[in-house]
TrEMBL record:
Keyword Transmembrane helix annotated: yes
Bilayer-spanning residue ranges: 12-38, 44-61
Keyword Cell wall biogenesis/degradation: no
Stated name of the protein: DUF58 domain-containing protein
Stored Pfam families: DUF58
InterPro entries: DUF58 (IPR002881), vWFA_dom_sf (IPR036465)
UniProt keyword terms in alphabetical order: Membrane, Transmembrane, Transmembrane helix
Domain named DUF58: residues: 208-360
Length: 448
């Protein structure tokens, strides 16, 4: 019995409407001292409110299962993307109810406004959808779904708690990967910013012979097939396949810098996952190396169907470290693991020329044996500062420093080009598109 009373008081909440009615009752009793003609009206009003309160309690507590709720969540969440979740709610009462729902989302989101209001008719059900955007990889713990129910009288609320504790892993941006995958399969990558690359000449990978049509390159006419068929026939070539594409991710302290909630490492991880998937769709072999002051993970290049899952599982566990990159170790690892000429996409960050100068000797050595593409980040915050008008001496000083850092980034691009090293200077938001564009460009120009 004590347990039932405890549960009753624990799940019973008084509403503002009840407090307003009680306040009105007090006012009536107060006025009755000055206006005797009110008579029994204040007492009648008070007992009416009390009767309605008891009726409200009986309506809500007449059944132990008045409503049902359940959270609908995917098996895993995609880092940096808007993930859709839902709450299924069903009214089992024989009357209409007003409902408020609290979903206990993980503390990592730092959100306290996950409150949904809706109304349900008797035996009606709804699915309420909402979006969550995680900004860190790892495990996110969800709690219970709490539902607060009001009758049309609205004097009290009854709370229902549906224990649905679950832990969802947050993986690198597989939603972004799927989007690019669908575009690549249907040859519609240009719709999301991927440029159409003009091919210079053709590769040595023969595909088929077909009838010549106006606009075909006359240099690809197959004269033997033309003689056999009596009509002009032309050879069709495709991009060379089974080329090795390695994403090398720097996990040092330079990649800890955050932009829009995500660290540079997370941007690099998301771009690496998408690039690896596009390379596999192009029938190339994708591989992965992570490095900081010591070697992280190494996934040898392959084009098996399970390769993208292997890369995804490795990227899920990677974290930023707080020392500088051991470039000598990176060079020796590349020489040991990469057995043939490959495209090496090195995701890192340089904030000054001195930072480049420390790594340049090793980058030059890598570029002797492989096609090296260095991808680093444009500091968008400094770019905004350099574009703002200066109104005082302090603003002039800040703007000058910001412009100097931006200029150093451009000097880094020129310095890398001087030594025959490809580079991409990109904002974090456009990193994926810029990287895929350069990969397709290098492939079309047969530089791999």
């Amino acid at each position: 019995m004590k347990k039932l009373y405890r549960l009753f008081y624990k799940d019973l909440f008084l509403t503002n409407r009840l407090f307003a009615a009680l306040a009105a009752s007090v006012v009536f009793f107060l006025f009755s001292f000055f206006f005797p003609w009110l008579g029994v009206l204040p007492g009648l009003f008070f007992w009416t409110v009390l009767a309605l309160f008891l009726i409200d309690v009986m309506m809500l507590y007449r059944s132990s299962k008045g409503v049902f709720a359940r959270r609908h969540a995917p098996e895993r969440l995609s880092n940096g993307d808007e993930n859709e979740l839902g709450i299924y709610i069903e009214n089992l009462y024989p009357f209409n109810v007003s409902i408020g729902i609290i979903d206990e989302i993980p503390f990592q989101f730092q959100k306290r406004d996950i409150w949904f209001k809706t109304t349900l008719k008797q035996q009606q059900h709804k699915l309420i959808n909402y979006l969550l955007r995680p900004t860190k990889r790892g495990e996110y713990e969800f709690g219970a779904v709490r539902v607060f129910v009001k009758t049309p009288l609205g004097l009290i609320r009854r709370r229902y708690t549906f224990s649905q504790d679950e832990t969802l892993p947050v993986y690198p941006s597989f939603l972004q990967m799927r989007k690019y995958e669908l575009m690549a399969i249907s040859n519609r990558l240009n719709e999301i910013g991927i440029k159409k690359i003009r091919r210079l000449g053709h590769s040595l990978e023969f595909e088929q012979v077909k009838n010549y049509v106006a606009g075909d390159d006359f240099r690809t006419i197959n004269w033997k097939a033309t003689g056999r068929h009596g009509t002009l026939m032309t050879n069709i070539y495709t991009d060379e396949k089974s080329q090795h594409v390695y994403c090398v991710i720097d996990k040092s302290r330079t990649m800890k810098m955050p932009f829009e909630g995500l660290s540079l490492l997370d941007y690099a991880i998301n771009a690496s996952l998408v690039l690896s998937n596009v390379a596999l769709l192009k029938e190339d072999k994708a591989g992965l190396i992570t490095i900081a002051e010591k070697l992280g993970s190494v996934v040898p290049a392959d084009k098996k169907a399970t390769q993208i899952n292997r890369i995804l599982e490795v990227l899920y566990k990677e974290k930023t470290r707080y020392l500088e990159t051991n470039m000598e170790l990176l060079y020796s690892t590349i020489r040991r693991v990469l057995k043939q000429r490959s495209l090496v996409v090195f995701f890192t960050n340089f904030e000054s020329m001195s930072g480049l100068e420390r790594q340049l000797p090793f980058l030059k050595r890598i570029s002797r044996f492989h096609l090296l593409l260095v991808v680093f980040f444009e500091n968008t915050e400094l770019q905004k500062l350099s574009e703002e008008p200066a109104t005082n001496v302090e603003d002039i000083y800040i703007k000058t420093i910001a412009e100097k850092f931006a200029y150093d980034k451009k000097l880094i691009v020129k310095e890398l080009a001087k030594h025959g090293i490809q580079s991409i200077l990109s904002t974090p938001q456009n990193l994926t598109i810029n990287t895929i564009n350069r990969y397709l460009e290098l492939k079309a120009k047969q530089k791999i």
